[in-house]
Design goal:
Structural class: alpha/beta
Shape: elongated
Low-confidence stretches: none
Protein name: Phosphoglycolate phosphatase
Mean pLDDT: 92
GO cellular component, one term: cytosol
Order of helices and strands: EEHHHHEHEHEHEHEEH
Largest sheet: 6 strands, parallel
CATH superfamily of the largest domain: HAD superfamily/HAD-like
Catalytic activity: 2-phosphoglycolate + H2O = glycolate + phosphate
Distance between the termini: 13 Å
Number of strands: 8
Active site: 11
CATH topology of the largest domain: Rossmann fold
GO molecular function, one term: phosphoglycolate phosphatase activity
Length: 234
C-alpha cells in the first residue's frame, strides 16, 4: 500500500458517540415485551459496547432470564430492526468530538471509523449525527471477514482511508480497541468516558484523555515516534 496521509481511526460507540441511551432503550423494549423489568441507564451502561448479542445476553441475565441460542438469534434480529428505526433518538456525539475531527481533518489527517457495529448502522448513525462526511472510511462488522480485535480489521480500515499505517493512531474506549491497536503495532489513545466497567487506563493505552479537547495534544505527543517509525520503514 502506498502511504500518503496520517490517519486517526476511531471506535464509534462510547468513543465518538454516546449511544447508550438508544441501545439500552432498545434492550428495554425487548425486556418489557418478555414481561421483564426494564433497566435503568446506570445499570445497563456497562453492558454496552460489545455488540447487540452481548447486550441482550447481559441484559436478560441481569433480570434472571435464561436464553437459548435460537431465542437469542430471534431477539438479535428484533433488536436490530427496532434500533435502526431509533438509532439517534437520544444518541449524540461526545462534547468536543466534532471540533476535534474538523481540526485534524484541516491539518491533513485522514479520519476513519473502525467499529464492531454493523457497517450500515454505523453509517446511518454518523449521518444522523451530521458527522459522516468527515470520514474517508467507515468500516464496521460486515466490512471485512474479521472484526476487532483482529489487527487486520485496523489495517484494512487504514487502507480504505488511504492512510499511512506507519502514522496511524487508534482512538477507542475499550480493551478491544487497545488490544486491536497493540496487535496491529499502532499507538492508541483511550477515552475514559466510554463503555467499560474497568478503568481504561488498566489496559495500558499509549495515552488517556478525558475530553476531546485533549486529543490534539495526545496525538502530537505521539508524532515524534510516528515520524521516526515512518523514516525507519522508508
Amino acid at each position: 500500500m502506498t502511504a500518503r496521509f496520517p490517519v486517526l481511526v476511531f471506535d464509534l460507540d462510547g468513543t465518538l458517540a454516546d449511544t447508550a441511551y438508544d441501545l439500552i432503550g432498545t434492550l428495554n423494549v425487548l425486556l418489557m415485551r418478555e414481561g421483564l423489568t426494564p433497566l435503568a441507564l446506570e445499570t445497563g451502561r456497562p453492558f454496552v459496547g460489545a455488540g447487540a448479542r452481548a447486550l441482550i445476553e447481559r441484559g436478560f441475565a441481569h433480570q434472571g432470564a435464561a436464553l437459548d441460542p435460537e431465542r437469542t438469534e430471534a431477539l438479535v434480529r428484533d433488536f436490530l430492526v427496532y434500533y435502526e428505526a431509533h438509532i439517534a433518538d437520544e444518541s449524540m456525539l461526545f462534547p468536543g468530538a466534532l471540533a476535534a475531527l474538523d481540526r485534524f481533518k484541516a491539518a491533513g489527517f485522514r479520519l476513519a471509523v473502525c467499529t464492531n457495529k454493523p457497517e450500515g448502522l454505523a453509517r446511518l448513525l454518523l449521518e444522523k449525527l451530521s458527522a459522516a462526511d468527515r470520514f474517508a472510511a467507515i468500516c464496521g462488522r460486515g466490512s471485512f471477514p474479521m472484526h476487532k480485535p483482529d489487527p487486520r480489521t485496523l489495517w484494512l480500515t487504514v487502507e480504505a482511508a488511504d492512510g499511512d499505517p506507519r502514522r496511524a493512531v487508534m482512538v477507542g474506549d475499550s480493551k478491544t480497541d487497545i488490544d486491536t491497536a497493540r496487535a496491529a503495532g499502532t499507538p492508541s489513545v483511550a477515552v475514559d468516558f466510554g463503555y467499560t466497567d474497568t478503568p481504561v487506563a488498566a489496559f495500558s493505552p499509549d495515552r488517556v484523555i478525558s475530553h476531546f479537547d485533549e486529543l490534539w495534544d495526545a496525538v502530537a505527543s505521539l508524532e515524534e515516534a510516528l515520524f521516526q517509525r515512518a523514516i525507519e520503514a522508508s
